[in-house]
Structures are given as C-alpha cells and as structure tokens.
C-alpha cells in the first residue's frame, strides 16, 4: 500500500496534458538529431505549409565545425524532390523565422520512397495465362519410343515427360 504522502503528492499534480508528460522526451530526442527547437518537428506543417509538409519531412540538423550555419536535412519522395528543390529558399526563410535568426544556412534533400522495400513493390499485372499449344504427336511418339523399355511405371512416365520437353524444345529451336 502506498504512503499517504505519496498519494498527497500525486493529488496535488492533478491531470496533466500528454504534451507536458512527453515534453522532456521529445526535447531530448530532437536535440540528439540536432533540433534545438522541438517546435520545428512538432509544428512542421504550420511552419512550412501543408503542401511542403506533405512532400518533405525534417530528419536532422547538422552543425558545421565553426558552429555557424547549420544544415537541415529533409526526407523527400523521389518524385517530389524537384518541387521541393524549387521551394528551398522559402523553406529556409520560414525555418529561420521559427528559430528567430539565420540558424539554417543550407538545406540538403535526401530522396527516398515513402514505403519500405516490401511495401513499395510496384504491382505488376500478370499477363493472362494462355493454354500451351498441344504437343506434336510425332514428339509424343518419339518420347514414348525412347522410354518404352523401362519397367518401372512411374519412372517411364517421368522419362516420357522429360523426353517430350527435350524433343519439343529441339524442334522449336530448329523451326
């Protein structure tokens, strides 16, 4: 059973917003990727606009050796990269407005698919299967003649099928 002081402390806190509970974790995760302001991650669509946010996501902010002028890396779908490339000056201006100074001096685009390899497979329509042409009776007779002396029934049938495939392939190559 918990002590009365522990319960009392808990009651004094009351309900907290989820954002308040996660604030420290979001900040530490963002800072590990170079984001000094988690607002850039959490309010990305409001900062750059819905159209750009649908095509590009911030991945990290890298700082140079001198500490001046950071590089913002954006993850972009391959097909949307030219559109985002044209909007880089506007994106840089809005991101720097979020920081309050010219923190970002360069934006690097990384092109990728939105889905993983397994999910992003292009659905190819399979051609409808057509029935193979009937085998040539002469090929069937030749295959049967080659395997006639085999006593084991299952082996004879397998050899006939193999002979038919080999002989029909030779015949199709010749003419």
Which features does this protein show?
single chain; alpha+beta; 175 residues; three-stranded mixed β-sheet; GMP Synthetase, Chain A, domain 3; 2 domains
Written account of the structure:
The protein has 175 residues and is α+β, with helices and mostly antiparallel strands. It has two domains: 94 residues, GMP Synthetase, Chain A, domain 3 (2-Layer Sandwich); 38 residues, no CATH class. The protein is built from nine helices and three strands. It has a three-stranded mixed β-sheet. It is elongated. The mean pLDDT is 75.
Beta-strand percentage range: 5-15%
Low-confidence spans? none
- What's the CATH topology name of the largest domain? GMP Synthetase, Chain A, domain 3
- Main β sheet profile: 3 strands, mixed
Counted up, domains total: 2
Topology:
Layout: H1 4-13, H2 18-32, H3 39-42, H4 44-48, H5 50-55, E1 56-63, E2 70-77, H6 81-86, H7 88-99, E3 104-112, H8 137-147, H9 153-174
Parallel strand pairs: 2-3
Antiparallel strand pairs: 1-2
Helix pairs in contact: 8-9
Summarize the structure.
With 175 residues, the protein is of the alpha+beta class.
